[in-house]
Amino acid sequence: MNRKRIVSFGWIIVLSAMAAVACNAQGPEAESLSVHISAVQQSERVPVSGAMSPAVEAPLVPLIIRHRRRMNIDQLDKAFRRVTNGVGWDEDGKNQLEVLDQTLGKPDYVDVTQEDLSVSTLFLKFLDDAARWICTTHLDAELAALPGERVFWVHADPSDTWETNPEAVVANVQMLLMRYYGRRVGVDAPEMEPWRWFFESSSHVSEDPRDTWHGLCVGLLTHPNFYTY
Amino acid sequence: MMLRKTCGLVLGAWLVCFFPGSTSGSLPNADLVCPPDILKVDKYQVLRALSLDLRGTIPTLDEYALLDELDDVPEWLLDDWLDGDEFVEQTVRNFREIFWPNITNFPLTNFRAAFSREPGSLLYWRKGVAATYRNKVIPCRDDKVDPDNTEIETVADGSGGVQEGYRWILPYWESNPTKKVKVCAFDAQEALVSPTATPCGTLEGQKDPACGCGPDLRWCRYGGTYLAINRSMAEAFEKRIGAVIGDDLPYMALFEDNRAWINGPISFFLHNQVGVPRINRFTPRALPLEDIPVLDFLDDTWVEITLPDYHAGLLTDPMYLLRFQTNRSRANRFYNGFLCEPFEAPEKGIALASTLHPDLQQREGCDYCHGRLEPAAAFWGRWGETGAGYLNPVDFPPLRADCEICALTGQLCGDECKRFYLVNAVSPAEEPYLGMLNSYVFRYDGHMKNVEAGPRLLAMKGVVDHRLPRCVANRAAEQLFGRSTDVVDKEWIDTLAVDFAASNYSYRSLVKQIVMSDAYRRLR
Known about the structure:
The complex is a heterodimer of chains A (229) and B (524).
Chain A lengths: L1 H23 L8 H12 L28 H11 L12 H4 L21 H24 L21 H16 L11 H13 L3 H14 L1 H4 L2
Helix pairs in contact in A: 5-8, 7-8
Chain B lengths: L1 H17 L20 E2 L2 H13 L5 H6 L8 H9 L1 H15 L14 E2 L7 E2 L2 H8 L20 E2 L5 E2 L2 E4 L11 E4 L36 E2 L2 H22 L12 E4 L1 H9 L30 E4 L11 H6 L3 H12 L28 H11 L23 H9 L5 H6 L27 H6 L1 H10 L2 H15 L8 H13 L4 H9 L6 E2 L1
Parallel strand pairs in B: 2-8, 3-7
Antiparallel strand pairs in B: 1-11, 4-5, 6-7, 9-10
Helix pairs in contact in B: 5-7, 10-11, 16-17, 16-18, 17-18
């Protein structure tokens, strides 16, 4: 029993060491600001004597960075319409993002003066509602449109699946990833795998390829790659 | 079993490493936790961020395709976007964080001038003055009066009240000439002056039974008619911001440019309803009535006008003055928004005052903020509080004889003295200021000029000592970087501020410099 504990404890040490090595093995861009700052402080301690100073590595300065953030409601509304060629969440003839704007964090500057850009549960719930409504409306319009006028099915047909026409589906997904996320994704890139998996899984749920495309549309709109930047 | 736990522990450590969003600052082993990744984004992602920040939407496929053969977003495209109306729109939107441009939560006209209608009734009448006409708060009878009869005939209601009939009136808020409304005859009176010489379009007139709401009911409001006025004021305010940014004028023009815009609701209000104020007063007028174009209430065209020199751009715009109703709040907002110096108590708190000195600049504890706030508020000393009136130096000198007499004897106490001058000292320390304009009370010699110079000088001082450009650069960086700046950014912000000044305070250049930086391309 004791021996087992000793062996297990040994495992903890070994695996923890591995984890620590993994942490330290992050890329150079992941170095903490404290490392940079201490390096700067160290460089400032170099004596100024007129003699040649020891060499100090140049790039060790604090990195100024931008933070990824959520689109505000106005940006989201425009982005919906940009990717769908004009379809917004206009349920019951009203733009629901305007109806719900204060609920979704837009300040009225009377009671609330700061914009809430958090990805809250409430935001995700309404985003999901919006995506489902928009995708239904958008894809119905696409089906009614001539192939040359479509913006969703540009390289593939609504009846295409990953099994029946993989090249067309991949090309179309590539186009959509660019349109929705601004990401150029190669045919064999790892980022393509989740979408391939989605297509294949979806075919087990519904035999209608249009359901898969609808799911893809909703997935694209509700993914953080869409609503953050 | 133990092995499973061990694996879980290690897996947890790996997860912390590979999911940089997880926070660990409060953990005892925080120093062992991997720092978050910083991603150098590619040109397409830069384009997307630029498009969202500068235009408020994502790029088109064609715009992405432009980058296929390029290493980075071309500068000409950036310039194109910065020149566009969408950039102006985004900038105006960003300014809302500073100005909070919403004044829809209060009507500007008096409750006496407010029409109401009972459920199921088509009669328009004013409850606030009903007793003046009918001895009781009751509406008129639903009987049409003879249009040729200039006298208003009443019938006793049997319980002490009297009631007249109604007239058909086309109100100013109705565009369809066939949609006249039933208005109780007393309320529908059109006389400009009553037989007792009371001007009817005034608060006094609203108490005179021979006065009504005037031709087309112009002195009164109904339902949300006031919203059109208040919203127009906020829109006019933002048009002024848009004009400065759109023309790429120096940032200081926000506090100097006296171009303003007026539409139907604003014009109608200034011409007809200023005389029946609720709380906020537009008198003494900050703009001569003859300089205000006459527009119909329903006219949604915008007419550009030039305000007199004593105005100070946005800082004396009616929207600003109404949104921030006291001179202290006006100064406070400016310090927050343009100098990045909020009036806040120190972390260790403020000691309680042992004596309550009436001058907040001297009261122990209060002096921590008010030592700066009081002289700053004095810059708005010639702009009426709880309103948007202007106290011109001729009619409102620092010391006014009649107000001094009022203060010393209780005689000649007119409305202006009571509103704008110190006529009642509540402590001996105030006595030397009796009869003086309120904004001069407790002013030190060096701060007297603030009152006369107006808020434009406050803005200029911020430019001269470089606090304003630094704050503008800081705010712009925070908006574009989606985070608060800290000590790491200080040197960069200083550089931005200097370059901003060197560009003649071109806000567009400042934004361009920020979004072209390497820092904008590093994302966490």
